[in-house]
Automatic annotation (TrEMBL):
This is DDE Tnp4 domain-containing protein. The keyword Membrane applies. The chain crosses the membrane at residues 12-35. The keyword Transmembrane applies. Residues 195-357 form the DDE Tnp4 domain. It is found in: Nucleus.
Length: 421
């Protein structure tokens, strides 16, 4: 595919995304206006300032009961619509399961004038479309301070689900995605997942900006995450500045009070930006690595090349997980500066990871998974700067080399018989 074809494809995807976003806005507005007009035509009008709150939002005096029925009608139409997944990023069944979890486990509560479903639906719409609070204020006829307060209520309830939805593996079993593949098993039988860092835009003041301005020349946060082959995140560390290297963040992750735990005798796959050790297996340097570098006419020629090829293929799980996360929740993937401050953006990223895991269980979107796979296959791979940090434990580094060499030699011996890479 030429660069021109690739640019055209990206443009088509962008236009489709904008079309879906415009449809969601228009649908919400039309449904709201239809419901409001029907109710106004059949209900006596009583002047009353909405809920006696948010006086700074200049809300017109309207009948509170009329407005509430209109809101309920809008919410009902959203969750029952065939476009539900486009609007709130999940189907109705998943939505109601999530609402119940947030009530029971997260402590989210309805108020006298606001039920849990509306709070959650508004929150999901904001995540799924990167919508400003003033837009939500218009759609749901709520004051901006109400929208903001409820947004934080829901996000805090979601963070309460972290312990049950972001679980680190204990290493007691080998993931089925490995055992069911002759390319990966038994060679990677001790692999529990993959780890990498990814950058998210962040809003900081001019004084802090240089600290967060890394390779992308814009302020970003470098988030370290681990995932299993089923694309579920098992550890997420948010907060590090975009200038911090993956290797530096990894050191912190292994030492902090809430550490990344690598089960004894197990390891994660990582790229060359990390340090090789018994629990973190990197590819061989100076050898071909990515799938595009291999073909039937140009197959692996050495144990190291074969190891790198399969390492890259299996480690791709973390790229897929990041891809699905960002495609499902544009609020963290936008190229523009976020609407929220740094601390809130950290919570948003963590909340999106929790929702990502929840949805993989109850509402996996296979269309998004397919889109991400296509994007990864066509994208230009960024150059990974090898870690030059000094080894803190030479014995552990040597053990990592032994593990890697053993895997490479075992798979090469079998490959020589089948020539199936």
């Amino acid at each position: 595919m030429t660069n021109q074809d690739n640019q055209k494809r990206k443009l088509v995807i962008l236009v489709k995304h904008l079309h879906n976003l415009a449809f969601a806005y228009l649908a919400g507005f039309i449904l709201y206006q239809i419901a409001l007009n029907k109710i106004k035509n059949s209900t006596p009008q009583v002047s009353d300032e909405e809920e006696g709150e948010d006086g700074d939002d200049d809300n017109e005096e309207e009948n509170a009961q009329t407005i509430q029925i209109a809101r309920d009608t809008l919410l009902s139409n959203i969750v029952k619509s065939k476009k539900c997944r486009d609007i709130i990023r999940m189907d109705p069944r998943a939505f109601f399961i999530l609402c119940r979890k947030l009530e029971v486990q997260g402590g989210l509560r309805a108020t006298r004038q606001l039920n849990v479903q509306e709070q959650v639906a508004r929150f999901l719409y904001i995540l799924g479309h990167n919508t400003k609070h003033r837009v939500m204020s218009f759609f749901f006829h709520r004051g901006r301070s109400t929208i903001s307060r409820d947004f934080h209520r829901v996000i805090n309830a979601l963070i309460e689900l972290e312990a049950t939805h972001l679980k680190q593996p204990d290493g007691s079993t080998t993931p089925s995605e490995i055992t069911n593949s002759s390319r990966f098993f038994p060679y990677f039988k001790d692999c529990v997942g993959a780890i990498d860092g990814t950058h998210f835009r962040i809003k900081v003041n001019s004084k802090e900006a240089p600290k967060y301005r890394g390779r992308k020349e814009i302020p970003t946060m470098n988030v370290l995450a681990a995932c299993t082959p089923n694309l579920k995140f098992t550890y997420v560390l948010v907060g590090w500045a975009g200038t911090a290297s993956d290797s530096k963040i990894m050191k912190n992750a292994l030492r902090r009070r809430d550490p990344l735990i690598i089960p004894e005798g197990k390891y994660y796959l990582v790229d060359a930006g990390f340090m090789l050790k018994s629990g973190l297996i990197t590819p061989y340097r100076g050898e071909r690595y990515h799938l595009k570098e291999f073909s039937r006419r140009n197959p692996p020629r050495t144990p190291r090349e074969l190891f790198n090829l399969r390492h890259s293929s299996l480690r791709n799980m973390i790229e897929q997980a990041f891809g699905v996360l960002k495609k499902r929740f544009p609020i963290i993937a936008s190229g523009t500066e976020p609407h929220y401050d740094k601390d809130t953006q950290k919570l948003i990223i963590l909340a999106c990871c929790i929702l990502h895991n929840f949805l993989l269980d109850v509402d996996p979107d296979y269309e998004i998974l397919a889109q991400v796979d296509r994007d990864l296959a066509n994208r230009r791979r960024p150059t990974v700067e090898p870690s030059n940090d000094p080894q803190e434990d030479e014995n552990d580094h040597r053990l990592g080399e032994i593990i890697r060499d053993r895997i490479a030699n075992e798979m090469w011996n079998d490959y020589s018989l089948s020539l199936d890479f």
